[in-house]
């Protein structure tokens, strides 16, 4: 997985449906959970309780490199195209996150320029990063 980079967009809201988010985002989700529905494991085993909010996930197309700032910039542009919906979504109590998965060797470092962080803040987006370190042979 070394060098692989995936970026997903996650929207969460207590009072919105998967259908409404899909319509506003003009995409079908890669994965979703509906508020008020029973909880299940990824393998389909029923869990106690119900989802307290709707989760909507969309994986942006993979990149050939591991340049995190370019991937975030591309995600910002994609999200800006849905700007009115995203602004209303966040103002009504929803959250928007980028979930970045990065495959790396023993060392991983990256820097996000301030203008890129400011753009994420302007869009109301939080950043989450998960790094998978390759095992030594």
Can you offer a commentary on this structure?
The chain is 29% helix and 33% strand. It has 137 residues and is α+β, with helices and mostly antiparallel strands. The chain has one domain (5-133). The radius of gyration is 16 Å and the shape is globular. The two termini are 14 Å apart.
β content, as a range? 25-35%
Distance between the termini: 14 Å
Enumerate the strands of the largest sheet in spatial order, edge to edge or round the barrel.
Answer: 2-5-1-6-7
Mean pLDDT: 85
Q: Which structural class should the secondary elements be placed in?
A: alpha+beta
Over the alpha carbons, how many angstroms does the gyration radius reach?
Answer: 16 Å
- What proportion of the residues is helical, as a percent range? 25-40%
Shape: globular
Brief digest:
By secondary structure, the chain is an alpha+beta fold. The protein has helices at 18-25, 68-80, 83-91, 114-123; strands spanning 5-13, 31-33, 38-40, 46-50, 54-59, 95-104, 125-133.
């Amino acid at each position: 997985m070394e060098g692989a980079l995936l970026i997903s967009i996650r929207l969460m809201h207590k009072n919105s449906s998967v259908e409404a988010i899909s319509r506003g985002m003009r995409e079908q989700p890669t994965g979703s959970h509906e508020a008020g529905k029973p909880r299940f494991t990824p393998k389909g085993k029923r869990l106690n309780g119900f989802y307290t909010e709707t989760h909507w996930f969309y994986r942006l197309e993979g990149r050939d490199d591991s340049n995190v700032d370019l991937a975030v910039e591309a995600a910002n542009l994609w999200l800006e195209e849905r700007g009115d919906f995203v602004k209303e979504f966040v103002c009504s109590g929803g959250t928007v996150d980028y979930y970045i998965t990065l495959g790396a060797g023993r060392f991983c470092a990256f820097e996000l320029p301030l203008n890129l962080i400011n753009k994420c803040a302007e869009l109301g987006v939080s950043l989450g990063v998960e790094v998978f370190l390759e095992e030594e042979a």
